[in-house]
Specification:
single chain; 242 residues; Quinone Oxidoreductase, Chain A, domain 1; Rossmann fold; 2 domains; 8 helices; binds NADP nicotinamide-adenine-dinucleotide phosphate
Length: 242
C-alpha cells in the first residue's frame, strides 16, 4: 500500500459478540490503530474524508461486543461522523462529491481517515455548523426526535427520564419543552441539576441526595407522568412506576 491508497483506522481487536458475563475491558484495550486499504465506493456508495467522529455509548457497546451487532475485527468502528465527500461509486451520486456532510457509516466505519456511506445516510451541512455538532447529527438527535414524537402522539403531558444530563437527555428536555411536555429529569450528581433547569426541565432531581426518594415521589405526584424514558435499566428505574 502507498500513502495514497491506505488510511489509518481504529479497529476492534475482537470478532463477533462477547460472551455473556465477559469482564469489561477499557475501550483502549478493545481497539487497535491499523493501516487499512482506503475503501473504494461501489455503485450507490460515497467515500467521505472523515473530519470528526463522536464516541457514542453505542460505539462503546459495539467494540465491547455487547451491542447486538457482531464486531468485525480489522474493520473500522464508529457509527457516525462528519467530513467531505471525496468520491462517488456512480454518476447518480457524483453531485455530492465536494459537499460537507454528516453521515451514518455504512460498509466501513467512521473511526478512520475515510468511511463509506450512501446518499440516504448522509445530509449536506452548512459550513457554519460546528464540527462537533455536524459529527453527531444522527444517533442522538433522531432518537430524541422520535421519542418525543411518540410521547406527543400518546398524548403525554409529562414524562420521566433518567441519565438526563446525557447528550440524549438534554435533547429530550429541549424538545419536550418545545412541545409543552413537562419533564421530571433524574441525574446522578447535584452539579448536573442547574444546567438542566436552565435548559427548561420542569423538575431536576439528583439521585445521590439523601432526600431523593421523597423529592421524586413529590414530583411524580405533581406531574403524573405516564412515560418513562429509561437509559439506565437499573432497579431504581424499575421502581419509578412501582
Ligand atoms: N437509538 C437508540 O437506541 C439510542 C440512541 C442514542 C442514545 N441511546 C442511549 O441513550 C443513553 C445516553 O446516550 P448519550 O450519547 O446521550 O450518552 P452520554 O452523553 O455519554 O451520557 C451518558 C450519561 O449516562 C449517565 N450514566 C452512566 N451510567 C449511569 C448509571 N449507572 N446510572 C445513571 N446514569 C448513568 C451519565 O451520568 P453522569 O453525568 O452522572 O456520569 C451521563 O449523563 C445511552 O444509554 C445510549 O446508549 C440509545
Amino acid at each position: 500500500m502507498t500513502p495514497a491508497d491506505d488510511m489509518q483506522a481504529l479497529v476492534p481487536r475482537h470478532d463477533g459478540s462477547a460472551e455473556a458475563g465477559a469482564s469489561a475491558a477499557a475501550p483502549a484495550e478493545l481497539l487497535e490503530l491499523r493501516r487499512l486499504p482506503r475503501p473504494r465506493p461501489a455503485a450507490g456508495q460515497l467515500l467521505v474524508a472523515v473530519a470528526l467522529a463522536p464516541v457514542n455509548p453505542s460505539d462503546l457497546l459495539y467494540i465491547a461486543g455487547t451491542y447486538g451487532l457482531p464486531r468485525r475485527r480489522g474493520a473500522a468502528a464508529g457509527f457516525e461522523g462528519t467530513g467531505v465527500v471525496v468520491a462517488a461509486g456512480d454518476a447518480a451520486t457524483a453531485a455530492l462529491v465536494g459537499r460537507r456532510v454528516s453521515f451514518l457509516a455504512g460498509a466501513s466505519g467512521a473511526w478512520a481517515d475515510y468511511a463509506l456511506t450512501d446518499p440516504a445516510s448522509c445530509v449536506p451541512v452548512a459550513q457554519a455548523l460546528r464540527e462537533e455538532d455536524a459529527a453527531a447529527l444522527f444517533v442522538n438527535p433522531l432518537t430524541a426526535m422520535a421519542m418525543i414524537a411518540l410521547a406527543a402522539e400518546a398524548g403525554a403531558r409529562a414524562l420521566v427520564l433518567n441519565a438526563a444530563g446525557s447528550q440524549l437527555g438534554r435533547m429530550l428536555i429541549a424538545l419536550a419543552c418545545e412541545r409543552g411536555i413537562a419533564t421530571v429529569a433524574v441525574v446522578r450528581r447535584p452539579e448536573s441539576v442547574e444546567p438542566l433547569h436552565a435548559l427548561g426541565a420542569t423538575e431536576v432531581l439528583a439521585s445521590s441526595l439523601p432526600d431523593h426518594a421523597e423529592r421524586l415521589g413529590a414530583a411524580l405526584a405533581a406531574h403524573k407522568p405516564r412515560i418513562l424514558l429509561d437509559a439506565v435499566g437499573d432497579q431504581a428505574a424499575a421502581d419509578l412506576f412501582a
